[in-house]
Design brief:
With 500 residues, the chain is of the alpha+beta class. It has a 7-stranded antiparallel sheet with strand order 7-6-1-2-3-9-8, with helices on one face. The longest helix has 22 residues, at 44-65. 36% of the residues are buried.
């Protein structure tokens, strides 16, 4: 150590003295102390140039997405009630009351706009839709919007405006997006239009949120989230989360916050889910989800980390049942197989696999990667729609002539609390849209007891007892409709004729 450095260290450590002690040292030279400044790691100009390039990247992304982002106002129409001087209730004029604010993003030049389902409702708990939706474009123009469809299970909705000169955003690759990647959130937080905030993707594949009633209902099953620290606040819902090319990688939908404001925990629906759902809403007005007839242990669906390391995979879902006759069974999947990829999506946990199956288009052929006995395998299966799949799982029988799926049902006839007889029939589990049963008011839960006065012993018997020729000449259906408690109900007949 140099002498100068030693003196500097001692000077810092020595106590401060005064009086005689100081006089005794006056004949010695004062220590010379120099300030040591650390050198910069690089030229200032290089640092500033890097900062300017990053700033330009943010500005580029904002310029591309902002013209496609809209502000959405929802309103409810109500009538004011008042009493006259005699106490009678009088209905006043109809008034319109604003019920919510949100954001959306234009996805095509036809005026289709993606937003959240809760943005287009005036009461998210009941699901009641708003009476009026007003969209304000980035250039200030305002239009009444038509609701094309809403899907509470994914918290997505599509509205449409009739307008010229629209700028549409492009979909990005949410599956290829990575943790740590820069993203921008755009929307109308607290009503401030065209607000842009920046951050990174903090995590991916977050499961449905807990501690929020809106995300804990039975309908909210098909969700996963991209987590971001880009500031998201009330009013951002339905706006886009974009990459540095201005492409949509998510639809902002929720925050985790004790105060109701941004705490750096924002959540967006991944673009691949949002695109699949919105495409189906635009095409059909509803969302038909995929089904492959497999299941897993609800408590412990994922494989343990040690096995994942052995197989050199991030994770997977072990099947504990494969429905006989379902798409998975027909593709050769078996109980114990570990699904690691489905339709291009990694399936490291059960929520990822469930959503990958749900967004698969019914009728599409999908590639599946799985492990069996430690060996990687591949297969291709044809996805069916979820409602039909659930009928297969329930071992229901399709009755095309009536347009129903039916199962077996036994009705116990009681007197004074004692069973005196049992009547067997075919329970309607699903009614096919546009079929004969729907046209004549037959509903799920109805039990078909007779066809043309002939007793029906179950679903198979019903299938043998009726075909299209019976419908053409006309048929009488005797059925029982249980009440809410399932014990009582009404019995009646329905005369079904061929459609004119």
């Amino acid at each position: 150590m140099h002498a100068r450095s030693v003196l500097f260290a001692l000077a810092l450590a020595a106590p401060v003295v005064s009086g005689p002690a100081r006089a005794a040292t006056e004949s010695q030279p004062e220590p010379r102390i120099e300030t040591i400044r650390p050198e910069r790691p690089g030229p200032v100009d290089a640092d500033l140039d890097f900062a300017r390039r990053l700033s330009n990247a943010f500005a580029h992304a904002a310029d591309r997405i902002e013209p496609a982002v809209v502000h959405i106002t929802s309103a409810e129409r109500t009538r004011q009630l008042r009493r006259d001087r005699f106490g009678r209730v009088l209905r006043g004029p109809e008034v319109e009351q604003q019920t919510g604010l949100g954001s959306g993003v234009i996805i095509d030049d036809l005026g289709h706009i993606v937003t959240n389902a809760h943005v287009v409702t005036y009461d998210p708990r009941t699901g009641n839709l708003a009476d009026r939706l007003v969209v304000r474009l980035a250039d200030g123009r305002e239009y009444d919007a038509q609701l094309i469809g809403s899907d509470p299970a994914s918290d997505l909705a599509v509205v449409r405006v009739e307008a010229e000169g629209l700028t549409a955003a492009s979909w990005g690759d949410s599956e290829g997006a990575s943790v740590g990647q820069w993203v921008l959130a755009v929307g109308s937080p607290f009503g401030f239009d065209q607000t842009v905030t920046a951050g990174i993707i903090s995590s991916k594949a977050r499961p449905p949120l807990s501690g929020n009633d809106r995300f804990n209902t039975d309908d909210m099953r098909f969700q996963e989230f991209i987590q971001t620290d880009a500031a998201i606040n009330p009013g951002n819902s339905g706006g886009p989360l974009v990459d540095l090319e201005g492409r949509i990688v998510g639809i902002n939908t929720a925050i985790a916050s004790r105060s109701g404001g941004n705490n750096g925990l924002g959540f967006a629906i991944p673009a691949d889910i949002a695109r699949a759902v919105t495409d189906r809403i635009i095409e059909t007005g509803r969302v038909d989800r995929g089904y492959i007839g497999v299941g897993w242990n609800i408590e412990h669906p994922e494989i343990d980390p040690e096995l994942a390391r052995t197989l050199a995979i991030p994770g997977g879902v072990r099947l504990d049942r494969v429905i006989e006759g379902g798409p998975g069974d027909e593709a050769g999947l078996e109980t114990g197989d570990i699904i690691v990829r489905f339709g291009g999506r990694s399936t490291e946990n059960a929520n990822r696999l469930r959503n990958a199956i749900a967004i698969a288009l019914p009728g599409a052929e999908v590639d599946v990667e799985y492990f069996r006995d430690g060996r990687r395998r591949d297969t291709t299966l044809r996805v069916i729609d979820r409602e039909t799949g659930l009928m297969i799982a329930a071992q229901a029988r399709e009755i095309p002539a009536l347009g129903v799926y039916a199962g077996n049902r036994a009705l116990e006839m009681t007197r004074n609390g004692r069973v005196i007889d049992t009547i067997r029939g075919a329970e309607v589990l699903r009614v096919t849209p546009g079929g004969a049963a729907e046209r004549y008011g037959i509903e799920p839960g109805d039990v078909i007891l007779e066809i043309d006065s002939r007793s029906i012993d179950g679903a198979e018997d019903l299938a043998r007892s009726i075909d299209e020729r019976d419908i053409e000449r006309g048929v009488t259906v005797d059925l029982f409709r249980p009440s809410g408690n399932g014990r009582a109900g009404i019995r009646g007949t329905v005369e079904i004729r061929a459609e004119d």
